[in-house]
Every structure is written in structure tokens, then in C-alpha cells.
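DATA SHEET
Item: assembly model
Revision: 1
Owner: S.N.
Input lines:
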Amino acid sequence: MPILFLLFLVPAFASTPEQWWVGNTEISFVEAPQGGLVNPSCLKKENCKAALAVKNKIGDTKIGKGGAHPASTVCRENHNGQIVIAFKGDVSQSFCRFKDGSYASLDGLIK
Amino acid sequence: MKKLILPLALICTISAEANSCLRPGKKVELKQFAVQDQDGLGICYANSASVLLQHAMGWEKPVSYQQLALGHANYARSWFTGQKIANTSGKPGDRYAGEAGNICLSVEAAKQYGICDGHSFKFDVHNGQDPWAMQEKLLLAYGDLIDYLGLVHPEMGNSHWDKFSKVLASRIYNKKKECKKDPAKFMADKIAQMMPAHLKQRITSYEQRIENWRKELKTASGNDVQRINNNIKFAKEWIVEFQDILRFVSDTKVGANPDVKVYTLRPKALEELNRVASIYATKLNGDFMTATTSTSLSGKAALPTIESPLAIMYRAARGMGANFSIEAEKDAFNDEPSLELALSAHRIQSLCKDSLDEEILGGIDVPAMLEMRCEGIVEGADPMMNSAIKDANSIVDVLKKNPMNNFGSKMATMFELLAPGCMRQMQETKSSLNKIKCESVALASVAVMSKLQNQTDASKENSSRRMARSQSWMTERLCANQPVSVDVCTDFMQKPGFADTDFCAQRQTQQGQAMHANHTMAVVGYEVQSNKNVRYLVQNSWGRACPFTNPAIAAGKDAECEKDASGKLTGRFWISDKALITNTMQLATVAKP
């Protein structure tokens, strides 16, 4: 019975926040329901650019100059954003920084 | 007449003794020496020498192999640079003296500097335990030194220095270009602001490793379980350490995006960082000051670059009661991350200048410069290129004038600081060590010889004679209870057949060079089987591991890894005389005083 009760407490979609670092800045992310990492506070807002970009993924993409990730072109050209490389221990990952200061992982921007 | 009879009788006695040594059923097993783990360090010669020296000195405790290796490196370096130490008999060492083999050079170094037991020098690793997480740092330190040995060897000549100077100039040039583009990027304060992130990354990195080790634990067994648990334990300690530092040094600020926290360095911490940078820039007593926080570490002296990681790690691990530069609760601050940042800030800032000043020449960091070797030079008419070439030439001139970089005196400082007990023993043991004698015989491995082109029948015959001679040489000494060091090419352990590595074969062909293998181990026993075949008991220095992956050998045909009563590997193995001697290039032994 107590186990059953605990199961009800677990929300339908739960993602533990994870911390990434860009320079001397620590940024919190959670996995968005549509896929990709986004700031948790951004997911709760209506017009947050990172969350909107992840919801409305772009399908028709092109590989950038020098074989760059197609999502990097999407970040720069479609969202007027800036690519940043973040670190988590020994792992690195590229993110898009939107004009309103929110962040989304590059893989979340494209279909 | 008596004069004639006595030597004859002696010869007969020795001969009879040698024969009895080879009678079927004869088995000699010297005591069980401590299981050593050289890990990734290329210091097998020191491991093997430590076994032979322990035996020769009649010690119960193991002789420190790390201390021997440092002594060996220092000794070899002094040889190369023409600052030959008195009482050495030989010619200048060969370029590979810092690598495999040559335990007699370690013994000579031991005579020069003395020895201490492995418990007094905490960097030795026994039974696979590395409580201070030192091996990685030591690997870097020895690696740098070995590179440097190559650079200073007289045979390298001016062309090598020229090449070195060019790659150095290239690196400086690139850095100057970067500086010009974005000078602010190289400001020390700006770099310093990255320190909290640097610490945080370390914490995360250790957390990730712990996670991986926990996964490994699920399938691990035996010694691996203990090793992994130790790793986890030490990683947790590091995390606590770094979290402490982080709390002390950093301020955080939350911006408009509540998920973004900006870390900055507290003014007090920044002040301290700059102080460390200025220590780095100070020239002490005409030495080439290469490091570091050591002034605050000891209050009196400087450590050379290659030792600083040892000192810093040791200190960070709270291994010593040194006076810290910031009082009380702030003592954890002045550790490796701050040092790295301070050093890089200072070094980079200096390179940004149009020409190198006295400071940077005084702070030449040889290992860091050696990293630059791999970069090629880009010729150009850029005035910055001329400035870079000028800088590089200045550095090379300084190094040429004093390639030793006062290494010996700084090494002594390190011992004094980190291992006072060891230092005392080193002084005390010198006189007994002077009475011991290291004897060696070069063999030219049969397997290597067979690889060489144009090998004549005569030289093949010589090879088999050499093999027989080495077997008898080794057995005689073991029979007299003396361990023997074998300098081998290790391919036979891992690949089918008894082939040697190209590594060994190539070295063999280098004219004027001494022969070199790639691993050294100690033979600590032998057995004559009923069919008169001989097998040897070998003490390796790879922890308790069984070293064989060669299918034939692993199947027990030619070798067998020893296990204790509880079924645990002992780090020793039995091996047939053929398999061992075929791949041996040099034998050595140390006679008791």
C-alpha cells in the first residue's frame, strides 16, 4: 500500500535538473518533454525563447560551413542566438543562448 | 705450489657448487618481497633495483623504488650534461638511461644519494594501493624528466636544439597573435575568475568517475573490488576538499535568468592568487625559479617544476603540516587549481609582451616547453615572428648554459620537505651502500638478434653460446641466494611466440648505444625439474597482476603465475629458462657488502 501511494506522487514527466558550466557561469537544465535540454524556469514561462524553439523544432536544416552541426545554423540564423560550449566534468555539449538569456541544447532545436 | 693448489681448489669448489645448483629437484626461493606497483610509471629499473638492494642490505622493509627512480633520473641527467658526479666509472650514459633497464645506474645513484625504506617515502605503491593518488602526477614528472634527458644528451647536438628553438618560437608566435587579438583574455584577473568553474568541473568529473566505478563494481571481483572501493573513497575525499575551497573562494550572483548563476572570485582570494603569481615571478638566489607556492609551503625554498605537482598534491591531501599562506580556515585555498591559474596567467601575460623579460627567463618551465615540440613552425614576414624567434633563442641560451636547472639542490629540498625520515635514512645508508657492488652482463637477446638483417651463422652461434652463458651466470648467483635483475623485451608476454618488440630490435641496431630492453624484473628463485629443465621465479612490479596474455604462455606451457594459499595472485610468476633468457638483454646483480 505505501509503495502504491509513492507511485502516485511521481509526476508523469520528471527530469532531474542538471548543471552545466559556460565559463564561470553555472546553468540549470532539465530535459524538455519534446526532447533537448532547456532551463527549468523557461519551461514554465509562456514566451521564453528557448522553450518555444524546442517546441517548434525545425526540420529542414543544412549542415553549416566546415561540417558544422545543422542546429548551430538554426541557432544563429533562425533564432539570432549565440552558440556556447558548456562543460559538465569531462563532458562537453553545445547550447544555444537566446536573446532573452535562456538556453537550449542544440540537439533540441531540430527534428 | 700452495699458491697453485689454492686457486685450483677454489675453482673446483665453485664448479661443484654450480653443478649442485643444477641438480634435478633443486629449488631456491628467496624471501617474498613486497608486491610493488609501478602503475604507469616507466621505472621498472628502480622496482627491480629496490628488490636487489633490499636483499643486499638485509632489510626487512622494502627499499623505496620511487626514491631510487628520482635518484636515478637525477644521476643520469648529471651524466648527460657533463656534470658527472665523482666516483662514477663509466662513459656518459646513453639516451635511454631514464627508461628501461640499467639497474646498475640506479645502484650507482643509490650510492651517491643513499636509500630509504618504502614506508618513509609515501609515493611508493604496494599491493595496488595508491592512497595519495600520486601515480598520475609522478608519471608526468618522470615523463618530463625523461624527455629532458633526451634533449640534453650531448649526442643530440646543436641541430636538436635548433629544432627545439623553432617549435618553441612557433608556439610563442601563436600565443602572441592571440594576445594581440584579445589582450583582455590574457589578463591574470580575468583568468583567475575562472577558478570556481575549474573547481566545480573537477568536482563533477570526480562525481562522474564515482558513478562509473560503481557500475564497474557490479561486475568486479577479487582485488578489483578493493581497488575500485579505494578509488571511490579517495574521489569522495577530493570532492569534499574541492567543495571546501569553492565555498571559501567564490561569490555567486543570480542574473535575470534564475537558472543562471555567475561565480566570481572573492577579492581576498583574488589577492592571494596574485600573490602566488608574484612568487612565481620571483627569482631566487640566481636559480631558475620555476615554481610556485613552495615559498609559502616551506617558508624558505623553491621546488623545481617537476616536483611541484608532487608537493602540491601531497599538500592538498593534507599530508603534511606545512604552514599555509592564508591562516586558519583558509588553508585549503592555496592548492593546485589556484596554482595552475596563477602560473598560466603569469606565463601567458609574459608572452604577450614584445620581448621576454628577465622574469620569464628566470621562470622557464622546461616540461611545458617540451610540450611544444610537436608544433611546426610557420615561416612568415610577420614582425611578431621575429620577436617570437628571439624569445625562443633566449630561452634556449639559458637552458644550454644551465641544463641541470639546479635540479639536484631542488630535489634535496623536496625530500627535506616531503620525506624527512627518508632524507635521514639516505644520509645514514650511504656508507654501507658504498661497499656493495653491482655486476652486470649484456646478452643481446637471442630473439632480437634473430630479427636483425644480415645475421651470419657465426653470430647465430654466438647467440646460443650467449644464452648458455647467461643461464649459467644467473643460476650461479641465484644458487648463492642473490636475486638477479633481468632486462627483457616484453613482447613474449603478450604475443604468440618468443618474438621481441621492434622497439628493442631498433635500439639494438643503433650504433654506439647500449642495448636496451623495455622492462626489468627481479628473478628471485629457480627450480630444476626432474627432466633437468630449469624455470625461474620472477618478481614483477605490476601489482599482483599476472602479466601474460600470450596464449601459449597464459596456458601454462612456459609460465605460471604464482598464487598464495588463499588463491590470490602474488605478483610473481614461474617461467621457463628458454622463454625468459631468449628475451633477456641484460642481467645484473648486487653483491652484499
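QC remark: DSSP finds four helices and six strands in chain A.
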